[in-house]
Design a protein that fits this description.
Helix content is 40%, strand content 16%. It is an alpha/beta fold and 344 residues long. Strands 3-2-1-4-5-6-11 form a seven-stranded parallel β-sheet, sandwiched between helices. The chain has a two-stranded parallel sheet with strand order 7-10. It has a two-stranded parallel ribbon with strand order 8-13. The C terminus is likely disordered.
Length: 344
């Protein structure tokens, strides 16, 4: 089995990916800086579950710590790297831009340098659907131009893709970037809609519904995302002598990883209300800077290369999230019967 470095191991996706790798028998080295962008206790709770397994080793480390990152790569010489750590959030980037540069640009360079020095077998890194920015063509395809980001967060993710391609081209590092589309599920991030809406509804507080609800998102359940990440990790790209818009001639690929089924925001709220057995008080607001009206993932490339097929509609995924939330926070709800959930 391999030694796999997972950055952002105490984060939402990093936690779930680390769990799956440990189940497969791999030695997982996890790093995270445990910053306070959201509740650190949630990150620590995830971490406790990982640290209970002997094949997991954790280091509290900031990606921007150059010497610390160099030491980590030298000490463990990982076979593969799953880079999921980043400063997340579109709106937060409007008020805290320097954090994004430190983590998403400087930190990513240190990851790339570590991969170069150690000659790793495969680097899989997190990009984002945010890179599609002002694009109006739907669904979003990896062959589309992504030169018009509308938030600094999106710009750093686009920069990550360019930096990764450069290293892949120059040093032959097999590299795959994954553009995630609105991931949700148990152990999710408190700043994301599923979590924040649930909390507000249960506390009897209004929820902020941007663009008056006239938005769609390609909500993607965490189990589907993890399955995609694990399969991609085992699918090492080779040099492409012909090259194409998504891969070039380097051993480098970019994929969308989404549910391929956009959901209206008001429909999403409706299913959440059913799962909680409570109505939401909606505070209708204008579109926020940096937000897009709709996301929709074209996943044909991922289907072709690893037979990826998302399996979880929101009518299944949201009740699973609510079950976790209520268990974790000790909340009791009275959801309507399953028959009341319209599977449309």
């Amino acid at each position: 089995m391999s030694t796999i470095l997972v950055t952002g191991a105490a984060g939402f996706i990093g936690f779930h990916v680390s769990q799956r790798l440990l189940e497969q028998g791999h030695h997982v080295v996890g790093i995270d800086n445990l910053n306070d962008y959201y509740d650190v206790n949630l990150k620590l709770s995830r971490l406790i579950r990982l640290q209970s397994q002997p094949q997991f080793q954790f280091h509290k480390l900031d990606l921007a710590d150059r010497l610390g990152m160099e030491s980590l790569f030298t000490t463990y010489s990982p076979d593969r790297v799953v880079h999921l750590a980043a400063q997340a959030g579109v709106r937060y980037s409007l008020t805290n831009p320097h954090t994004y540069v430190d983590s998403n640009l400087v930190g990513f360079l240190h990851v790339l340098e570590g991969c170069r020095q150690m000659g790793i077998q495969h680097l899989v890194f997190a990009s984002s659907s945010s890179v599609y920015g002002a694009n109006r063509k739907l669904p979003f395809s990896v062959e589309d131009n992504v030169d018009h980001p509308i938030s600094l967060y999106a710009a750093t993710k686009k920069a990550n893709e360019l930096m990764a391609h450069t290293y892949s081209h120059l040093y032959g590092i097999p590299t795959t970037g994954l553009r995630f589309f609105t991931v949700y599920g148990p152990w999710g991030r408190p700043d994301m809609a599923t979590f924040s809406f649930t909390r507000s509804i249960l506390e009897g507080k209004p929820i902020g519904v941007y663009n008056h609800g006239e938005m769609k998102r390609d909500f993607t359940y965490i189990d589907d995302v993890v399955e995609g990440v694990i399969q991609v990790l085992d699918h090492v790209p080779c040099r492409d002598e012909l090259g194409d818009a998504s891969g070039s001639q380097a051993p480098y690929r970019i994929y969308n990883i989404g549910n391929h089924q956009p959901v209206e925001l008001l429909r999403f709220i409706e299913v959440l209300e059913t799962s909680l057995g409570r109505k939401a008080e909606k505070n209708l607001l204008p579109l926020q800077p940096g937000d897009v009206l709709e996301t929709y993932a074209d996943i044909e490339a991922l289907r072709r290369d690893i037979q990826f097929e998302p399996k979880t509609p929101i009518e299944v995924g949201i009740p699973r999230f609510v079950d976790w939330y209520c268990s974790y926070y000790g909340v009791t709800v009275n959801p309507r019967s399953v028959a009341a959930v319209d599977l449309r």
